[in-house]
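Bit of a strange request maybe. I'm writing a small parser for structure token strings and I need a real example to test against, not something I typed by hand. Could someone generate the tokens for this chain?
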Amino acid sequence: MCTILFAWQTDPKRPFLAAANRDEFHQRPTQTARWQGDIFCGIDLRAGGTWMGIHRQGRFAAVTNFREPALSAGERSRGDLAISFLRSHISPANFCRELEHTQMEYGPFNLLVSDGKSLWYMSNRGAAPRALEPGFYGLSNGLINDPWPKVTAGVAALRQHFNADNSQLFTLLKNNHQAADEELPDTGVGTDMERMVAPLFIQAGEYGTRSSAVVRLDAAGEWRMAEQSWDSEGNASGPVQNSH
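Reply from user aminoacidic:
Good idea to test on real output. This should exercise your parser:
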């Protein structure tokens, strides 16, 4: 994923809500979200792994990359992190603490993992593992809650539409507002690139927002996920894939 807007334990009826976009080259082979045994997720068919998924036994994981001037693929795929957590029975705390020892084997990443009881975040670019407190958060390709325009505006929109249905949240995620140059972060990739990837919903020819996802956790501890794929013109590509 490239932008994840989420609320954690802000409402006892809805302990977790996430609305997220995955940005990638349109030609990169991808399998849309579906059940893979006990895991519901999409699959990156080039490197394997996933960007976001849930497990029938009450687990959630999501990963984003971290933007840097020099591309760093790492020895191991970032997508393996999410799949590894979903397949495991390890607590979020222990998973992240164990990952600290090997985190630099992966390309730059942000990671969110939850078992429904706690939600943990870490990054191998300067964020040690920690349990997140109740609140609203935004995570893109910097550290969590970095005040990038699409993160700040996206979190505000999620607050306003917290009770919205999936269709409304998919609409929220299609915001293609272009922030002014002076508002953009400086991640070392140059102004043209910062402009290209500034919108929440990216349409830049060969590169753009490939899919949007909504993930929910209810008061009974049941996770649900829905994913909508998009083509390069920003149109829906196929039906919404639902875990239920």
